[in-house]
Amino acid sequence: MTKDFNIIGKPTPKIDANIRVTGEAQFGHDIQLPNMLYGAILRTKEPVADIISIDTSKAKQLDGVRCVITADDVDVNNISYRRDHPILKKGQVNCIRDEIAAVAATSKEIAQKALELIEVEYKVREGIFDPFEAIKEDAPQINHFIDGKYPNKNIAEHFHYEHGNLDEEKAKSKFVVSHRFTLPRVTHCCMATSNMTADYSKTDGRLTLYSTTQVPFLYQRDIARALKMEPSKIRIIQVVIGGGFGSKLDMYPYEPICALLSMKCGQPVQLIFSREEEFIASPTRQTMIYDVTAGADENGGFTFRDVKATLDNGAYTSWGATTPFVMMQTFSSLYQCPACRFDSTSVYTNNVYAGSFRGYGNPQATFALERTIDMLADEIGMSKSEIRLKNANFKGEVTKQGLHFITCGHKEALEIVIEKVKESTHPLIPSQEGKHKRYKKGVGYASMLHVGGGAKIYPSDGCGTTLKIDPFGYLTIITGSSEIGQGSETVLAMIASEELGIDISKIKVINTDTDIKPWDVGVHASRTSFVAGNSVLGAVKKLKEKISPKAAQLLKTDIDDLVYENGVIKSIKKSESIELDKVVRAIHFKEPGDLCIDTYFFEPSSEFADKEFKGNVSGAYAFASQSVEVEVDTYTGNVNVLDIHVAQDVGKVLNPLGLAGQIEGGVVMGMGYALLEELVVDKGMILNPNFHNYKLPTSMDVPRIHFYPIETEDSLGPYGAKGVGEAPLIPTAAAIANAVSDAIGVQIDSLPVTPEKVLRALSGNVKF
Amino acid sequence: MTDFDVISPGNVDELLLEIENNQSNNFRFGAGYTDLLLELRKQSGPKINVINLSNLNDPDFSSIVKSEINIRIGSLVTACEIVKNNDINELFPVLHKAANTLASKQIRQVATVGGNICTASPAGDIATALVALEAVCEILSTKNEIRVVPISEFMLGVRKTALKKNEILRSVVIPLRFFASLRMTNDRIISDFIKIGTRKSMECAVVSLAYHILQDDEDKIRYAGIAIGSSAPTIKFTKNAYEFLIGKRIKELNDDDIIEFAKKVLEYASPISDIRGSEWYRKQVLFNISKSIL
User: Interface pTM (ipTM) of the complex?
Assistant: First the structure.
């Protein structure tokens, strides 16, 4: 049954768009507090060295310097979920990001000058930059703060998952392929560089942090643990975020450092990364090597997948080490697969460490899996669309890992993108073919599976909402969830507007202050519309239980007879209505008097995975397929992406404008991953910490993106919606790589697919 | 970051006076500032003076003028102004295209011809086109005298030019050559700029090829200005490739001729391997695109 909606499903501009385009939005860089100081961090010059001495005396004497701190000056705990990361390093440094000292001064220039005056004597040691070297028994221990969880001293994290009978399925397989895939180190490239303003009051011992975190409540806890404080004495105020994409999911040393500077000085301190520092010291996507073996039976039905993943953990641990938790879902459950074994090992090296990044390991896994599927298809002699359709997931499927697909648009998504790419492909025009047959075209497909209803990884995956209607009929939504540019404020306002009949211009969303807003686990796992949306719906229901009886009384009718629309409550039977604000005033100002305010907490029905990583961890699952047509210039190796078709199971379209933004942004991010982006490291040094040589796609590089939403109307989502944020990025690199392989007839097994790699592959003299 | 003071002369007299006054100081010229600010930010050292040219009001520095025999382009002309100029678009498509592929549209609004030449980068787009066109640099000294230097002798190495401390690049001149005497139509000109990179905008050439080939009424090649960028420490004019083509007809060239031509272009390439591309890639691509133009 399709219900007519007033605003849900209608293109709605973001409610925070005006302040963003006019420059009124207060980003972290814009914050100015009275008596504010400027912080700066001295990072190591050598990626791997013993620190013989640190002399801060000259820096301390510089006019305008208020404080200089090193590890010896602070009493703090290690950070990261493995507690393996000291905030300030002492005795030795192990990667190029390492923080040695920090300064607070009256101007940015003085703070920089002070850094130059700090003298550090290093004794350079030999580093280990290859995880396969680091895992050898005779390799020296890289991180000295680990708890001995694993017998090998350089293993940071290990995951093992399996289902089905691998041997039996291997025996059944008529076709088997084995291949190694290598994924690069890429970074988020947020337009706003990392920033923090810390304001500590020595009078009451409270710390206010103006932060860009995506997970304010977990962050409050993490900061408290790092600084040995009570969490509730820390107030997190989330500034307008100039790009998140997962980079603000963990807490990094600069944040407690900024707080420490403020605590030492008793004045506010602001710390802002330069662009170069952002490239060097902000997190990356997890780089890794996959060894994949996969099989199919004589009809092209998948039989098994056997996957070994080796992750370069870097010198310390952040969320990158846990991304295999998501990867294993793709290997176990994307397309039907009777048997799967997945082993991942995250190995300490002297490289920079990885955090979380949109897709959380899934773009890497999807690349390896979808490339393998193309190789299998070649082996079998089956078409690349047919093999995917044959093995696609289906509605009602409970995968061997325990994921329950209540709704599933996988097959439909495949059918759409296969059909659409056929319609849009053009033969080479004669002038392009030329006498040297210069250009070659190819088509590639890839799908993806991702959580679409939160992910149960913390004791609560829930979100609280407080709704308040004032006596003038305006609604305030106080939500635990956070806005990081994804459009959640707008979607939540649209949901409330739909249910209460209040115009969206009369709705305010308050979502930035941990002292005010109720719990939410944070922005990740494409969960906000699903979880916070359901939370708003629950709160609306409770609030209506307060308003409707009064309205029914005033209209002299039954509660069931009432409709909320256009700012009024209407009786259908009597064709009479009353303004909502009038009802609110009647509740508020007449005996016995009450507020039109209510609070609701929504906790998704998802469950924790068990010790074998099996269980239905999300409230809903999103599916997407993409098909890509590329043109490869065999003279230069350049890949021109012509058309990308995106079909995605979004459950239900809530805001078509916001959705289009997510799709286009995701696809372009995926294209950058496929063709352009790589943070190049050599012996622990980052060689391209700038936009000149770190090639982010520009607006000129954006291909034609065609989007076909699939509405499966999931019973658990708000109006049937599922998470959409991460999905559009996930299959893009895989689809583009498949298309390039199709065009040039050479297997591609690493990203990015640079012109040079293509030309080398074509010349046949070097392995791709 | 290098700290600096800014001096803004309003006319040529003031400019020459400021250059004279700064002979014992460290100073730099600033015009579009697309490179200079990045450079000053990276460097640390004693304070310098920046002689700001953006307030300079002088047609010799800031206009494009066509005469019977040449086109003169002031050093303060922006990439965008070159792109918009109809004479250049018609007569020297290679220059039009080179200016139009420089960085991004926003940067082209401020980046100047003089800046592109005086930075003396082997990757300079406009500079590569001007080498192919055998343009001549007109240099003004504090004595208010002009000396002329062929552009390929002006750029001596990365960030090294033939400018003396009391000189400034005023303009570049491109001779019209056969346009002045021959009745040239579009099909007589084969002129383009090929820039190899990974992005479609904000790209610094991994390799570039500028070519300007003129044919007479009998289809014989009368001129073949070809220059390669990002292939050697400086932009190279490939004279042997020029001589190979003179007097030949393109439609009569066979595959072996085309390969020989490409090899002659490649003779001038001694590229480095760096983060943007290996020596192997640069040579391979240069060879391939050289073949593609005939």
Answer: 0.94
